[in-house]
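Worked example

This section walks through a single chain of length 294. The input is the sequence exactly as stored; nothing has been trimmed or padded.
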Amino acid sequence: MESLISNFIDYLHNEKNTSGNTELSYERDLKKLTAYLKKQGIESMDQVRETDLKGYLAKLQKEGYESSTISRNIASIRSFFLYLFKRGMIREDPAENLKAPKVEKKMPEILTVEEVDRLLRQPNPETYKGMRDKAMLELLYAAGMRVSELLALKTEDLNLSFGYVICHDQSRERVIPIGNVSRDVLAAYMDHARSYFVKDETEKALFTNCSGKPMSRQGFWKMLKGYALEADIHRDITPHTLRHSFAAHMLQNGADIKSVQEMLGHSDISSTQVYLGLDSVKMRDVYMKAHPRR
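Given that input, the structure is written out below as tokens.
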């Protein structure tokens, strides 16, 4: 069964161009399912029935997993068994009728403009580390990119002369403008700090750790958490919080939703529309001033 999972992940990667995070999640979900099935005496995917899958999902629910986690497991299971069915590896698709539980869509955590300002003031620009950290935080907020995109940037992706950065997401790329504040901080980092960390001239990563190697997500998260505490921000802040804040602040200040969608790299505009609900007071104020039958 493990070889079928491995083949399925290869299929996702090579034919569906899925992200690395999606592939890891699907693989983890399916390996947990396989372990459960083996305990039930099932050694072949062709032996799996709908009742077996429903039993597994009921077990997840009983163990207290959130609806969002169960929904992702169902997505993994449905995709996997459909793949097997279409290739004639199983006679019937036991996952065809699985239904995902309703997931309450949580509003993303957003920092106020004042909180973002406090956070971005924390790195010490008089030190090499401070210059690097400030450049990373300023760019993350200026461009609204995902932290994985930030850490994957190469020096050639940054154009300070024209003020933009090129983000890469699988086979796609998008050009995002950056403001003067971020551009000046990045210029200072490139001129004075990057060479302190990077001794290997063949290293193309824009941001590295203290050893001159590309920074990890965990390293960035630890750094962000530290500055959040120094800024007296006692909320559940993650690298994605600055991305959420970028989107909300852009829309609140009059940016059109299609442009924000493009900058965020959302394929579906409904993913961007969630940020429209974050400032209902301002929205009502605009409505009362503009609507002819207010």
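What to look for: The longest strand covers residues 164-169.
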